[in-house]
Specification:
Blueprint (H helix, E strand, L loop, with lengths): L1 E4 L2 E9 L2 E6 L10 H7 L3 E7 L14 H15 L5 E5 L1 H12 L6 E5 L10 H14 L2 H8 L5 H5 L5 E6 L6 H10 L3 E6 L13 H9 L2
Parallel strand pairs: 3-4, 3-5, 5-6, 6-7, 7-8
Antiparallel strand pairs: 1-2, 2-4
Helix pairs in contact: 1-8, 2-3, 4-5
Length: 218
Amino acid sequence: MYIHVNHINLFYTCIGSGKPLIMLHGNGEEHTIFDEAIAVLSKRFTVYAIDTRGHGQSDKVPELHYSDIAEDVRCFIEELGLERPVLYGFSDGGIVGLLLAIKYPNLLSKVIGSGVNVNPDGLVNGWHIIFKIIHFFNRSPLFKLMLTEPDITAEDLGRIGIPVFLTGGSKDMIKQKHMQWIADCIPDGKLTVLKGEKHGSYIIHSPRIAEIILELCE
C-alpha cells in the first residue's frame, strides 16, 4: 500500500491485529527483511512495515537525512491515527526511533532498537573505513548518511521519557561500549548483547527478533 505523507509517497504493508507495531529497516534495505518476523508478530500486533524514503518501493530522493525519515514516520502515525505504537527499528530504523522519542514524547509507547548508533564514531573502526572507501567511489547518499549522521547527544537521550530497549550482537558493526553508553544515557534504557550475533544476523529474514520483541512487550 502507498500513503502520501510529508510530501513523499511511502510504501508499507499492514498485517495482523492488535496493538500497532511499526517496523523500520536499516540502510539500503526494505521492509521484506522482516517477513519471517512479521509472520510471528502479526498474531499479536497490527504490524506496519514501511519502506523508508529512498528505499524499496517508496519515493527516491537525492539525499537522505534521519530527521526527514523521522518526520515521514511521525506523519505516517498521525495520518493513520495510530495510538502510541511500539516502534522497532533495525540500525537506521532504530536511530529514527530515538529521534522520534526525543522530539515527540507522546507519539510512541516504547522503542526497541537493534544495532543503533547515535553518531558515526559509534561504528567499529574497520567498518567506518570501508564505508568511506565505498562512498569515495559511488557517492551514494546511503553511505554519506552513515558517515555524516546522526548527531544525537547525551542531553538529547536524557530527555527520552519512554522505555527504550536496545539489542546488539557481540560481533556487531556498532561498538558495544557505544551501545551501552546510549542505554545508560536514557532514563529507562536497557541493552542486551547477544553472544555470537553480528549486526543483522538475528534480524534479517530471521524469526529470532520477533521472539525478542514479544518478550520485551510482555
